């Protein structure tokens, strides 16, 4: 029997859409439309009867045009949002890098945010204190910067901090959304080597990316999503070839 780290069955997920109005003035000028929008909101269905299984130890790449449901899928796997119907079963602890700065508190320092981010991802505070200096070494953020508030950080520094926490807390499942190409070439090489080491130890990884090289180099399997469904599935090489043959948006 196949051992699955992620098992999604018959998933439905929709979001409620509201018309955007600019302040009180916009609401008053478009009051009939505003009232109608609030009483009869529109919905956008992202997934309908969606199923996906990821074997333990696999590195699954997810490709597709913007708006196809890639990030929503990671958020569902990571239990950030709940499905409307169906089940999302995961085995083990999950660590997420879903967006630059996600899970960080702007007013806290980098050091404090490392502890906070790890605790939010299910790590005991004691363990995070033990890992603190190792994580700081990985991020290469040191000196006065690690004790400065997060709002002073660049997007690259935030991504380094998130990567350090995610990779050093040694999760069973790592979810990554477009945040590996940060920092200089030396730091990117460090990220690559650390992820390779985790793959060898059997970590399950789900990687969303528009970077063909990353998907080809890291992933053991690849899916191409379109309209909330898996259009293509297979080895990275075969899926990439079919994407090119069909001239699909990547």
Q: Can you put this structure into words, describing what you see?
A:
The chain is of the alpha/beta class. The protein has a domain at 99-171: Orthogonal Bundle (Helicase, Ruva Protein, domain 3), CATH 1.10.8. It is 39% helix and 26% strand. The protein contains 9 helices and 9 strands. It has a 6-stranded mixed β-sheet with strand order 5-6-7-3-8-9, with helices on both faces. A 3-stranded antiparallel β-sheet has the order 2-1-4. Helix 4 (110-120) packs across helix 5 (125-139) and helix 5 crosses helix 6 (155-168). The longest helix has 16 residues, at 185-200. The model has no long low-confidence stretch (mean pLDDT 89).
The level of helicity is 25-40%
Oligomerization state? single chain
Which range does the strand content fall in?
25-35%
Number of H- or I-type helical stretches:
9
Ends: how far apart? 34 Å
Sheet with the most strands, sense and barrel status: 6 strands, mixed
The shape is globular
Number of strands: 9
